[in-house]
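Tutorial handout. Part one gives the primary structure; part two gives the three-dimensional structure as tokens.
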Amino acid sequence: MEYRRLGQAGLKVSAVSLGAWITFGGTVEDETAEQIIRSAIDSGINFIDTADAYARGEAEKVVGKAIQPYDRTKLVISSKLYWPQSEDPNDRGLSRKHIMESIDKSLKRLGTDYLDIYFCHRYDADTPLEETVRAMDDLVHQGKVLYWGTSVWSAAQIEDAVGIARQYNLYLPQVEQPRYNMLDRHIEDEIMPTAARHGMGITVWSPLAQGILTGKYNDGIPEDSRAAENEGMQNQLTDDTIAKVRQLTEIAGDHGLSMSQLALAWNLRRPEISSVITGATKTSHVQANIKAAEAKLDADAIAKIDEILEK
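Part two.
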């Protein structure tokens, strides 16, 4: 496994990480989820990403149970907050109240004394940014959080957070977690350069575009697939998109890779990216994803991929 620095921070995370989004504590049985997590850790993945919003806290519980046999100091565990957790008007957002109360709930569910990374899951327009930055700084001083970051923030919002932290000598955000994949490259223009300028790492989610970049939809929508019940995904499966994925699948085969491995390796070609957060419903998925960290795409392959993607 390759390990990369989280931007300019000293923390190192596995290039391929495991995310608990949707499946853990929800669609995947707890026992299977634990097997997946332990398979990932045993294979060199040290970064496990979750959030209080994933299955309303159940994902954190599953992750917490699975990591108990391991040396906590060898793991990088992250969680997030922002989305409503109840009907209570204060049980949401990035207010000081919600941050201070949410961290304790997440730590309890995870069965740990601290988080390596705590993400602001979205930007909160209802809370003064200084209030949020100061609260995250306090969590670092309290030892409950080692690093804090943002998730799906714009370049301007990241700039503002960094500016406030510098102005008041507070802990800087060290990482941004955006969506990024072959079919969605929006972060390349502003967010990547902004993160790099401020020494922030990038841990990307949906590197396989919710499964579209696995190639499973190249010949239609399988009845048991995510897209079969998701109209939004069906709208993404245009003739143009499928044509591109089919061409990319051929390139993957030429390099001895699966389509998924090609998509992950393509993400990891960028030095700005610290880790790609992958999902899994089987341990075999974990093993296949890990191989992507070993794949190195040469300039010719990247040029061919860009030519397909830019059509």
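Part three, for discussion. The CA atoms of residues 116 and 142 lie 13 Å apart. Residues 3-208+270-296 form a domain with the TIM Barrel fold (CATH 3.20.20.100).
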